[in-house]
Hints:
Blueprint: E1 13-17, H1 22-33, E2 37-42, H2 47-54, E3 57-61, H3 67-81, E4 86-89, H4 104-132, E5 135-140, H5 153-173, E6 178-185, H6 191-198, H7 204-210, H8 219-230, E7 241-244
Parallel strand pairs: 1-2, 1-4, 2-3, 4-5, 5-6, 6-7
The structure holds nicotinamide-adenine-dinucleotide.
Keywords: Oxidoreductase
Protein name: Short-chain dehydrogenase/reductase SDR
GO molecular function, one term: oxidoreductase activity, acting on the CH-OH group of donors, NAD or NADP as acceptor
Amino acid sequence: xxxxxxxxxxxxxxxxxxxxxxxxxxxxxxxxxxxxxxxxxxxxxxxxxxxxxxxxxxxxxxxxxxxxxxxxxxxxxxxxxxxxxxxxxxxxxxxxxxxxxxxxxxxxxxxxxxxxxxxxxxxxxxxxxxxxxxxxxxxxxxxxxxxxxxxxxxxxxxxxxxxxxxxxxxxxxxxxxxxxxxxxxxxxxxxxxxxxxxxxxxxxxxxxxxxxxxxxxxxxxxxxxxxxxxxxxxxxxxxxxxxxxxxxxxxxxx
Length: 254
Ligand SMILES: NC(=O)c1ccc[n+]([C@@H]2O[C@H](COP(=O)([O-])OP(=O)(O)OC[C@H]3O[C@@H](n4cnc5c(N)ncnc54)[C@H](O)[C@@H]3O)[C@@H](O)[C@H]2O)c1
């Protein structure tokens, strides 16, 4: 894996959805350290300030659920920096409630953002990367797309679909030199997690105890996997779902 600041992504341009906070922002920071120019597509207007802080980065306000917004972000990226070499389809939301209380609207929201939003982002990335001769596409799945948990039906189902999407697209686009991989993080301390803990939906101490490494994952640890998958260091890696979970998904003991 590339070390920090070795210029592993020098001269590359990356488009990151949900780049205004959490894992998307951590990936953005790591990509900048490695020399990439960035485009952050996010619903949150704070993406603009984050882009200014990062430098060599622009923000586009929009939703991954709207194809026109994704196309607009790509057009802005190409106008400013040239072809987009790396796309990180990271935007996603949690859904944490007993299945019998989940309304059709709540189900549809998580499917629209996590699954359809990832599909629309991946489709536009694939279209442009194939036309320009290649690229690296990363999809943000979750360990809950690999192993199951109760009271997260839309989240687990959408993330399992995202993990399979990476495999299916990798087969379809490998000859076009587009690599497609997914990252499956464990519990990472971000706004998403803080919100669930604040609402009493998560007990962070129990989560740490359940993790073989005995701790939560740091956002930067996920970002370093993203750097590896985006860079030439992973030139023969495609169709993989890379766990960054402190051993959670491997664990099957008491
Ligand atoms: N935090 C964790 O423990 C964890 C674990 C596994 C997977 N993930 C996944 O990582 C990704 C990022 O999660 P996070 O923890 O950083 O969350 P977060 O809430 O901190 O950040 C998500 C970002 O996505 C943006 N966003 C939400 N809906 C959007 C939309 N429709 N269009 C564009 N942007 C949108 C938000 O504005 C926000 O900036 C998600 O896909 C999540 O499922 C997180």
